Give the backbone structure.
Amino acid sequence: MDWLYILMPISGVNIFWPGLIILGLGVGIIGGFFGLGGAWMVTPGLNILGFPMAFAIGTDVAQMAGKSLISTMRHGKFGNVDYLLGITMLIGTVVGVEIGAQMVMWLEKIGSVDKVVRWLYVVLLVLLAWLVFHDVWLRRKKEREAQAQNRELDKSATGVDWATKLQAIRIPPVIHFKYAGITCSAWLPIIVSLFTGWLAGILGIGGGLIRMPALVYLVGCPTHLAVGTDLFEVAISGLYGTASYAYKGRVELMAALIMLCGAAIGAQIGVVATKYVKGYGIRFVFGLAVLGCLMSVVLKLLQAEFPSAGWWLSPLATVEVLGFVSAISIYIAIRMVQGAKAELAAKKTAGNS
């Protein structure tokens, strides 16, 4: 079975190359659907497949930049991108990415990068899972209350509503973002992007893992616009992050290109699927994806704590992350096909009438 493994020339490790293709295709679908670079799954996924953590981060940032550019162009055609909001966030993103990248180099030097990054992932994913499912629960509670009163709940109603309070803080300059339909202090998206940029640099993610929820819950951007705008921001920050990590010699270009081939196809499917799945449908599936990623990171942490069990924890972590990415990707693809069929049927019925 040696033919299933390929030697990476820069990092010097042998990698299961079909895993790279599966990871790239699946993350392309998921990234296009959620508006994420997908690095929150790819970085731990690459680490599980055998890359040292610093190389997993740098390589993932490189493939993420290319895939996000493709997804952004597709979302732009659907009108799902607020370019002014994305450009405003670049200020904090670039600064945050560089701070995070420098921290990774320091952690690598003292030999703590793997452990620190994995625990940061665990904390972040647990908080995100709680936020998303708490929001969905509150929204459904409001729906039940509305039904009990024989009225229909406003479609714009949310479960967690922090954005309204934050938008009320009008520290100059105040900007109106036309496509997102929100008016707020420019400092709100800048501060959000500074924090997500820092996470992008230290975790190897595009920042989209928290930027998409932050755009929804903190800035008040509609979910489908948050998806497209976030991808635009992921693409720009990814290009900067790639240059930074390539300069530090931590980008495995061969692996990035292999994944990008699958991701380019998957991104098209994910973007089109957002046409048929809106609002809380996207948020709920996002929560499931976060839980799947959390499970894989916990398995890798257990392997580090209990080396004697590594013979079964390591393959289990690999199967879990690839299996979960595949399952979510198949679900999104099915929803896209179902939505397209329903749309064609509606057009046919309208034509006959």
